[in-house]
Amino acid sequence: MTRTDAVVLGAGIVGTSVALHLVKRGLSVALVDRRGPGEETSYGNAGIIEGATIYPPAFPKGFSELASIALKRASGTNYHLAFLPQIAPWLLSFRFWSTPQHLAATARLMRPLFDLAVAEHEFLMMESGAQSYLRKTGWLILYRSECTFAATSSERGLASEFGIPYRVLDVEAARNLYYLLRVFIAADQICSLSAGTRENGALRSSFGNISHK
Fold it and tell me: pTM for this one?
């Protein structure tokens, strides 16, 4: 009977990458999914390999943001009313750890992981012959008002501390950079430690083929 040291459930980008690194460490791994690697991926990361994230998700601060969540109009949040009492302790803890001081501390703890994100993906792409899917074009962040842009000052301060290259553009410079921009934007920010992939599913499938070489 063949020995299996680890079972990884789900053959998306996370599961496939975990399985690959376990195999590289000498373990016998079973990667379990209904279909092949990358064939049922959620595309939740929109093809972005994120190396420039600073802060983790935080508890909403403003009344309008909380109201949007309460009315179920926030695209990134949903809840069941009957379940709220059960998760109330977690929500209070989440709020506590979302202070500026705690967010900055968490950002410093996460930084080593994000520093490796693009390089680790690129190594697997080279090994699987999938380099053509990688685009090192950075990440363009758009702000609709000066107020929302100004609110990121602490984040930009940490980016400078971490050595993450970025540049701030005015409206005209952003439009010159990306000709499809036609809406008014107050300011832009470009982070260049992120990368993108053209075909997410194909990339995951390529990673899945490494173990068979």
Answer: 0.74
